[in-house]
Amino acid sequence: MGIERDQVVRTALRLLDENGLEKLSLRRLAGELGVQAPALYWHVPSKRALLDHMTDVIVAPLVPELAGPSDPAAWPDWLRRTAGLLHEALLAHRDGGAVALGAGLHRAVALGAVAERIVEVLHEAAGLDLADASRGAGTVLQLVIGRTVEEQALTDVTPEALAEVRSRFPSMAAALALRQGPDDDAASFRFAVDLLVEGLRAVAPPDRAD
């Protein structure tokens, strides 16, 4: 019986959640689907292609949520919400950030749609010229994906490793002691997005900054 690309990608996402990205291979995926590895190449000619299609499935539910702000002046809040939704979508899958890292938008079409919408809002609502709007959109994606990769990579830090960091970097250790708690990752993400939004305000025309 033949296989469809959607079946391939959704099986890959299940294996990702069960075992992580490091153990996801085309050979293992083929075995799970009960086919030989060459049978996958028609749908996913490389692991990069597979990751791109996985990114597309992960991000696709966001796209209907991303209508631009009804009030152009509300673009900063819209951008914060959009960044938050993308962050949540990537966090919903084990190693979701690493899957999306370096994705090709010709296959990760939903991620491309998010980027396109951000460009439109930064250009039309925030008043950035089109080149800067595209740079801003790229920066938003880089921040969200990179931050997600970092969060997901640091889940297994040992007490010994933390003690070593504290002994070498006392200022950071003191700061981290003030940030203890289950909500620190979320607060740190919001802080990073706020910094980015304020930077975009600074380059927006004065009548569009608020």
Automatic annotation (TrEMBL):
GO terms for molecular function: DNA-binding transcription factor activity; transcription cis-regulatory region binding. Residues 2-62 form the HTH tetR-type domain. One of its GO terms (biological process) is negative regulation of DNA-templated transcription. The keyword Repressor applies. Keywords: DNA-binding, Repressor, Transcription, Transcription regulation. Signal peptide: none annotated. Residues 25-44 bind DNA. PANTHER family: HTH-TYPE TRANSCRIPTIONAL REGULATOR RUTR (PTHR30055), TRANSCRIPTIONAL REGULATORY PROTEIN (PTHR30055:SF151). This is TetR/AcrR family transcriptional regulator C-terminal domain-containing protein. It comes from Actinomadura barringtoniae. The lineage of its organism: Bacteria, Bacillati, Actinomycetota, Actinomycetes, Streptosporangiales.
